[in-house]
Design brief:
Length: 273
């Protein structure tokens, strides 16, 4: 018999803006004389769990650096510690980083961005929208997860359209607040769509109750999926759009009518198709 000793681990899934923490749960399970770590997923696509031991002075706790959790499944045993050492480990972890555990949407072994795909602009056909931030944008597009993100100058309540067809893996719209405060980083409403090549498109900062799709829905290119806003860490209304390979690695994307061109900050672009 195994039993779940304690659910929840602080600082688990602290990374990036996907807010997967509502879909993945880390648990400690007692088994014979060991405590083993288990991840349970309620996501509809695989999730890669990456564990790294940072503190080499502590005896080995991370046994598998990469495990993939299948939809609605669990994986255990990637971190294992003797029951007598468990309290010591927890105590030490409060003081310093012993290991890190991150979860990312998608199975990195089965995904590669199709760089020939041409995206449609996520705003209304015929409309012109100004680019507020582009690839390697100086204010917030610097990390691996967002260096190829684009900020479209859309107002709160503007319609958001799918830039590419796919399946909705995540949709959240209960957050109400926005601003340039650190604690709002993970409080952006968003929609994440899985594409045929295994990449994921994220539409962020949507307005409160601003999603029209839900987990599991199929969407077509150009489908109206929600409403723009300014929730989460945001200096004002805009749509943050980014495409990532699993592992939260953003990739460059190009749009219809502007194939191969990097959009320029401050310039207005028209959706022609
Ligand atoms: Zn942005």
């Amino acid at each position: 018999m195994t039993k779940v000793v304690l659910a929840l681990l602080l600082s688990f899934l602290c990374n990036y803006i996907y807010a997967q923490n509502t879909e993945v749960e880390l648990q400690y399970v007692e088994e014979n004389d060991s405590i083993i770590f288990q991840v349970k997923s309620t996501a509809i696509i695989p999730i890669d769990v990456v564990s790294k031991q940072v503190d080499t002075l502590f005896s080995k706790v991370v046994y598998k650096e990469l495990v993939t959790v299948q939809p609605y499944d669990s994986v255990r045993g990637f971190i294992r510690v003797h029951i007598d050492d468990f309290e010591k480990l927890k105590q030490a972890r409060r003081e310093r980083d012993i290991y890190t555990v991150e979860a990312h949407y998608g199975d990195r072994r089965n995904a590669k961005h199709d760089s020939t795909y041409v995206y449609t602009f996520p705003f209304k056909k015929g409309k012109k929208v100004e680019i507020q931030q582009t690839f390697f944008g100086k204010s917030s597009h610097k990390s691996i997860a967002s260096r190829y993100a684009i900020d479209f100058g859309m107002r709160t309540g503007d319609k958001v359209y799918a830039a590419r067809e796919g399946i909705v893996v995540f949709a959240l719209d209960h957050f109400t607040e926005g601003g340039k405060r650190k604690e709002l980083t993970r409080k952006a409403n968003k929609i994440v769509i899985l594409h045929a090549d295994g990449t994921l498109g994220a539409y962020a900062h949507l307005m409160h109750k601003g999603t029209l799709v839900k987990k599991g829905d199929s969407v077509t290119k150009g489908q109206h999926i929600g409403y723009s806003g300014s929730t989460g860490y945001s200096g004002g209304p805009h749509l943050h759009f980014v495409v990532r390979e699993p592992g939260d690695i953003s990739v460059p994307i190009y749009f219809e009518g502007y194939e191969g061109l990097v959009l320029k900050r401050g310039k207005r672009y028209k959706r022609k198709h």
